[in-house]
Structures are given as C-alpha cells and as structure tokens.
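To whoever is on call:

I kicked off a structure prediction for a single chain this morning and the downstream step that reads the tokens threw a length-mismatch warning. I double-checked the sequence; it's 226 residues and nothing unusual in it as far as I can see. Pasting both halves so you can look.
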Amino acid sequence: MKATDLIEALAKKLKTKSQSELAGVLGVSVGTLVNWKNRNEDLNAMQVASALAKSRSAAVYKNQLETIQPVVEFYPIDRYSTKRGANWMVFDSGKDVTLYAQGLREKLESCHGIYIFYDSRGHALYVGKARDQSIWKEMNLAFNRPREVQTIKLVQHPERNQEFKPGYEKLRQPKDKQLELYDLAFYFSAYHVDDGMVEDLEALLVRSFANNLLNVKMETFAHTKA
C-alpha cells in the first residue's frame, strides 16, 4: 500500500481536517506524515502495524487526558430565585453579573459530567450526575429536589414582631425540621466527564462516601448491572 493512499484513507475515516490534526490522532509528528507523502513508497506490514499501534496509544492518551476535566471547584453558592419565584438557582448568571459568572454558566450548560455540593465547612453533601442533560440544568434540579433524609433538630423562633422572652421563661423545644439542599449547600464543584464514564464515576464517589452523603440511592457500576 502506498503511503499517500493510507494517509488519505485514514484522514477520511478519522474525519480529520488538517495534517496536524491527523498527526495528533495517529501519534506521529507532522514531519513524519510529510516524509511519508514525499517518498510515497509502499509501506510494509510492519510500518502499517506500527502506525496502527501509535494511533491506538495516542487515542488512549487522549482519553486519559479528557475523561475527567475540572470545570470549577468549590464555587460559592449564592442562591438566586427564578423569575416566577418557584425555584432556586445556585447562582445568578444574568446580564448584570460578572463575566466570570456568565462564562461559568455557559460552560456548565455545555457539559455533561459530575457535580458535588458541599456544606459550609467544605464537607461533601451530595453527588449527582448529568448525562442526559447539562450539568447546569441537572444541578439546579437537584438543588431544589426535596429529600426526607435532610432533617435536623432546630428551635423555631418567632418571626413576627413580638417581645423576646429568655429561655428560662419560655422554653422552646428543639424539634425536627426538614431542610432542603438549598438550605445546606454553600459550595459546589463540577467536572466534565466523558459520557461513557459518568455513571461509573458517580457510583464510585457515592459508594466511597456512602455514610457522609445525602444520596439515598446506592449507585451501581454501569458495567456490573444485571
């Protein structure tokens, strides 16, 4: 097989648009491709096998670099009411906020992956995945979703205008109060994750910190499901 024929076939099959892009996919230098083209010699079996092996190694390396990519870590939550006041968003990203916040939302809207909510001390509260929807949409849905496990002991104090009475005159008993995630979460992190790894990574995180998280469902690894 002629070198030029192989290069053209690979470029077409791999849908690359330039020599540098093809060289990157194949794991060779642009100079190597140019030499193959200039010589246009018949490639022997070993040369073809070497090209395929380099291509495989380059693909593995690329996947390792891109499988998990941090988007943002420990970003402060500043909950913001939606226009109709029905739900909360994790932060305001309208036209009047900083370019940083606007850019973060745009990135979260374009990514699938994993997100984590943390409490005020930076301890993980909840881990979620966004595979079918964007991280932004799925994260805000989770932020508003009620969960019965989020119950703590609190004292209910009067909110209307009335005279204060110390505890020794009017004892207010601590009672169970259900809190929503938006009451508890102070920070979030988000990671772009390759679609094929989203479920397994979520399962790993949830199972690793099963007794610390509010997650009720014990996720299983995608490739071990019956």
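Update from on-call: the warning came from a stale cache, not from the record. Cleared it. Sanity check on the structure: Strands lie at 68-76, 80-81, 88-89, 113-118, 124-130, 151-154, 175-178, 187-193.
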